[in-house]
Design brief:
Layout lengths: L7 E5 H5 L11 H10 L5 H32 L9 E7 L5 H15 L5 E5 L7 H6 L14 H13 L3 E8 L4 E11 L3 E5 L20 E6 L2 H17 L10 H5 L2 H24 L8 E5 L5 E7 L1
Parallel strand pairs: 2-6, 2-7, 3-6, 7-8
Antiparallel strand pairs: 1-9, 4-5, 8-9
Helix pairs in contact: 2-4, 3-4, 7-9
Bound molecules: adenosine-5'-triphosphate and pantothenoic acid.
Adenosine-5'-triphosphate binds next to helix 4 and helix 7.
């Protein structure tokens, strides 16, 4: 069997951090405040030693991509047009994909202020709870069959085709469901970041691979025992914000027996999200261009770059 991560350069964070030393992108206090507002536990060392070199690498690939799009258009004697560059972020439930995605979006905006960087999550393409129930797969939420992959493919295809306004459905962790009648509008992005557990997955019965739409991909990786801890910590945050809101999915947990609530959260992790990780998410790790490996406290200790 082919060894895992055989086709990657591996770097410790110290070595990786050197790659941005030559032309340093300074972050202003304002940028740092924005980053802290995004997630107050984020390590600013990670930002400068891991994420800044990463966004510089992505910028290089993006410039290459723009050149290639122009050359292609010239070759085909077609007018040049904006073809959005799409970045996929994959990894387990609760590993920190959305935090990574928002951080990349913020830093790419900082590095390329004239470019429009947009961000969506594939959570929006989950079937609504009622539909999951109808299909009898409520306990398989997050598994490949729980997403409307055709809608996601159409969405990505429309973005690449340059459709003026493309709409994505919206998912809420608070209601644990798709938000009815709400859409996120994506208007002519230069760069679109798509974050979700299924971004590197193979289709079950479609003709297209969603990963074919990605021009760059990142997998956020960590030991499942750590991810479980982060899952439980996030559960606690969700509980604490649910107290005063009976419409919140976590309300009954929040006002009920706390010990029972945590027992249930552990069970959800073991029976659903961990199974999903092992069966459907982890096998896609080796398709990513970059793997960010995290240790305790979300600190990134190793970076893998596809050769
Ligand atoms: N770099 C980080 N530093 C500190 N805490 C983090 C970091 N990234 C994520 N977290 C915390 O870990 C938990 C999970 O993060 P997040 O919600 O970003 O995960 P996710 O992978 O997007 O999950 P899901 O797929 O379920 O939406 C959250 O409580 C978040 O605050
Ligand atoms: C919405 C997903 C699928 C992915 O973000 C996940 O957070 C989820 O809800 N999983 C189902 C099991 C659970 O409640 O964690």
């Amino acid at each position: 069997m082919m060894q895992d991560r055989v086709n990657y350069f591996q770097f410790d964070r110290g070595d990786w951090g050197n790659f941005s030393a030559d032309d340093h992108v300074e972050l202003t206090q304002d940028n740092l405040n924005q980053i802290k507002a995004l997630n107050d536990r984020i390590s600013l060392n990670d930002v400068s030693e891991v994420y800044l070199p990463l966004v510089k690498l992505i910028k290089l690939q993006y410039q290459q991509y723009l050149k290639w799009q122009d050359q292609k258009a010239a070759f085909l004697k077609m007018p040049a047009r904006r073809v959005p560059f799409i970045i996929g972020i994959a990894g387990s439930v609760a590993v920190g994909k959305s935090t990574t995605a928002r951080l990349l979006s913020l830093l790419l905006n900082r590095l390329m202020p004239q470019r429009n960087v947009e961000l969506i999550t594939t959570d929006g393409f989950l079937y609504p709870t009622a539909e999951l129930k109808r299909r009898g797969i409520l306990n398989r939420k997050g598994f490949p069959e729980s997403y409307d992959m055709e809608a996601l493919l159409t969405f990505l295809n429309d973005v690449k085709a340059g459709v003026d306004v493309v709409e994505s459905p919206v998912y809420s962790h608070a209601t644990y469901d798709i938000v009815p009648d709400q859409k996120q509008k994506i208007v002519q992005p230069d760069v679109l970041i798509v974050e979700g557990i299924n971004t590197l997955q193979l289709p079950s019965n479609q003709l297209l691979y969603i990963s074919d739409f990605f021009d760059f991909s990142v997998y956020v990786d960590a030991n499942p025992e750590l991810i479980e801890k982060w899952f439980i910590e996030r559960f606690e945050l969700l509980l604490d914000s649910a107290f005063r809101d009976p419409t919140n999915y976590y309300y009954s947990y929040a006002i009920g027996d706390r010990h029972q609530a945590f027992k249930r959260a552990h069970k959800i992790w073991q029976d659903i999200d961990l199974v999903n990780l092992n069966r459907y998410i982890l096998p896609t790790r080796n398709r990513a261009d970059v793997i960010l490996h995290k240790t305790k406290h979300h600190l990134i200790d190793k970076i893998y770059l596809r050769k």
